[in-house]
Amino acid sequence: MIDSGTPVTNVAQMAQPATVALFVSDLHLQASMPRTAEAFFRFLHDYARRTRQLYLLGDIFEYWAGDDDHEPFNRKVIDALRAVSDSGVEVFWISGNRDFLVGAEFAEAGGIALLPDPFVADIAGQNIVLTHGDALCTDDIGYMAFRAQVRAPQWQQEFLARPLEQRKAIIAGLREGSRAAQRDKADYIMDVNAAAVAALFDASGTAIMIHGHTHRPACHAIESNGAPRLRYVLPDWDCDAQEQRGGWLALTPDGKIERVGLDVIQTAS
Q1: What is the pLDDT of residues 103-124, one digit of tens each?
Q2: Are 210 and 234 in contact (CB under 8 A)?
Q3: pLDDT tens across 227-236, in order?
Q4: Domain CATH number, residue 43
């Protein structure tokens, strides 16, 4: 069982972590943020290769215009993920609201298994429901309508049929519109809805949830249908800002979930 006495443990000096699984999301990788990308590459090399399973829970890329976008930066990320997979680690992917167009070509090139959202993972005898988290933000009615539109297979088929540069231009416009819209939204609208969280716990039959999206890392102990639940929220990454942030969650062989900060990467030799 997960130790709920101290739900999130900061393990700043994990030199060689022995883990069953690692969970990470919201890196928003892009060529214009090289330090963030380098931190992720070091995470993959120094930590992900020493676990059994790696779960990438969405928004790994700032955007994904389609599997035919073969720019060098994307290729470097794919090659780094492939190296982890080739080392014997199982790598799983749940798409986020930025990279939901990731498809079979990307998965094959990176040695990655694509999972539906949500997904119940049986890890070391524990059932954990995994999701990116955006589907839980049901108070944001406008976004939920947009999400339903762009996740529809017909919309994606028609969008991916457009020329790559046109797709990138459309995505850039959508990103700018999203930033403008967020400035006018109340904080609670951009966070998960408590009823949606409870419904997912009940539907999945799990006591543990891990998600990203909200950029509000924490562990929330709640009760649903008379049973205790733990909801872990992953941090976003930014090593290019003056105040750097990021990290991941690690499931240890003894069943504990530990929060690992980027300081272990920054101080690694």
Answers
A1: 999 999 999 999 999 999 999 8
A2: yes
A3: 899 999 999 9
A4: 3.60.21.10
